[in-house]
Amino acid sequence: MSSSAQPMAASLVQSVDWLAIAPPTIAAVAGLVVLVADLFLAEHRKALLGWMSVAGLAAATAMLLPLLDGDRSTFCLTGDAAVCSYTADRFTLVIQFLVLGGALLSALLSVTALKDARKELPEGEYWFLLLSSAAGAALLPASRDLATLIVALEVASLPAFALVGLRYGDRKSSEAALKFFLSSVTATAVSLMGISFVYATTGTLYLTQIADRIQNVDGQFHTLAQTGVVLTLIGFAFKTAAVPFHFWVPDTYVGAPLPIAAYLSVIGKAVGFSGLILVTVVALPSYADVWGPALAALAALTMTVGNLGALRQQATRAYSAVRLLAWSSVGQAGYLLVPIAAAAYSGDAEKSIGSTVAYALMYGAVNLGAFAVAALVGRTKSLNRVADYRGLYASSPLSALLLAFFLLCLAGLPPGIIGLFAKVTVFSAAVDAGLGWLAVVMAVNVVIALFYYLQWTALLFRAPEGEPEKHRVPGPVTAAIALTGVLGIVLSGAPQLVLRFTGTGLF
């Protein structure tokens, strides 16, 4: 009996594919190393923590390269190797590249920000929280069961609350963190209720099993399953800052340290959208008639409210550049929702999702670039108003040219070819899916957005008021601006690389 029991016990032990889980694991380990190192480093050597964090994120990003050979899965069900909790496929790697690359650029901006505000921001805690959030964000796109998905979502979100409100004695920062916390906790509670309903009707948390079983739910549980689908979608709509769940965004971005606002604008959205894609396209394709129209309506509402909110900022005399970027990010979230909604109507859902991922990569690069230039201006202009950018070309020509390029990319105008290419790709996804009305709404919103993007761009080249103020660019900020600039320019020269990277074998 003992001899038969031994192999049975051994079969229950799962092997772990350490290479597959290396990117989020390295980010998490780097966070622990930084936290411990903070206890032993003297105050004047705390800057080393920042460079340790940058090195950790760079190493985590580099570990994506060995995974390009083929799909890898781990933490699979005993007896069914096809049902796993963690899968490193093309979709996972693209989103992890966006998350870890974005976190790396945010870390470069943070090195300078912490040096300038050392008394206001505790360095050890700051770097630990940033790396922890990045680890959770990198885990989420690989999650293939709802439990891991929610855990990853919270690991990404909880440290972000603390990062927003970490500045000592800053009331605006505390209020921003509270708004962010309350909205996110509400989203999580709604998502958990929806997931519990889905689990009650299917008896599983694995996404692929849910996709099979939810089609055969008993009639008496059909309403419960539909309610679970809707509640789960509402929870993720909070995370993506879709209207009407966007109210926390402007105040949170303004109150947070600027590198954290940049982090939330890209990594926060990547987390929300990747979770939304996994829940809708992978777990609930049979409920496309429920989530398709809902996401199409959310997309139209989000892009319209976001762009009108950004336009309304210009009615105030001293409107903040960060607040304008916050409203812009809400509008951009609407564009990102369009292909996901189109996947419900299209015969090729993979192509539609590829459009969203391609747009997310473009948006991530140029939006982080815009925040990097904002970080540069904010070093001498603490209010960071759009008016402070007047005549930036006279004092820092290269920064002004790159900011103009980033804004034109966001607007979808040449020479920002990658921005135009991404918008055309999203527009085509809507048209191909038969959502002509949504394509029209998107076209109108692109025109609305042109006004505030072009007005800001023109301001950069106007004659400055008084003597132009020279901007000394710190090394880390220079690196962040240069990396985003090079990426945007290269992709504008060869935009087909983005679709080639995101359009094949996503699932």
From TrEMBL:
Keyword entries, A-Z: Cell membrane, Membrane, NAD, Quinone, Translocase, Transmembrane, Transmembrane helix, Transport
EC number(s) per entry: 7.1.1.-
GO cellular component: endomembrane system; plasma membrane
Primary residence: membrane
Keyword Cell membrane applies: yes
Topological type in the membrane: Multi-pass membrane protein
BP-aspect Gene Ontology terms: ATP synthesis coupled electron transport
Recorded catalytic activity of this chain's protein: a quinone + NADH + 5 H(+)(in) = a quinol + NAD(+) + 4 H(+)(out)
Enzyme category, top tier: translocase
UniProt entry tagged with the keyword Membrane: yes
Positions of the NADH:quinone oxidoreductase/Mrp antiporter transmembrane domain: 143-448
Regions that span the bilayer: 20-41, 48-68, 93-114, 126-143, 149-168, 180-207, 227-249, 261-284, 290-312, 324-345, 357-377, 398-422, 434-454, 475-498
GO molecular function, one term: NADH dehydrogenase (ubiquinone) activity
InterPro entries xrefs: NADH-Q_OxRdtase_suN/2, ND/Mrp_TM
Cellular localization per UniProt: Cell membrane; Endomembrane system; Membrane
Function per UniProt: NDH-1 shuttles electrons from NADH, via FMN and iron-sulfur (Fe-S) centers, to quinones in the respiratory chain. The immediate electron acceptor for the enzyme in this species is believed to be a menaquinone. Couples the redox reaction to proton translocation (for every two electrons transferred, four hydrogen ions are translocated across the cytoplasmic membrane), and thus conserves the redox energy in a proton gradient.
Family: Belongs to the complex I subunit 2 family.
Subunit record text: NDH-1 is composed of 14 different subunits. Subunits NuoA, H, J, K, L, M, N constitute the membrane sector of the complex.
Name the record gives this protein: NADH-quinone oxidoreductase subunit N
Organism in which the protein naturally occurs: Streptomyces paradoxus
Lineage: Bacteria, Bacillati, Actinomycetota, Actinomycetes, Kitasatosporales
Name of the gene encoding the protein in the UniProt record: nuoN
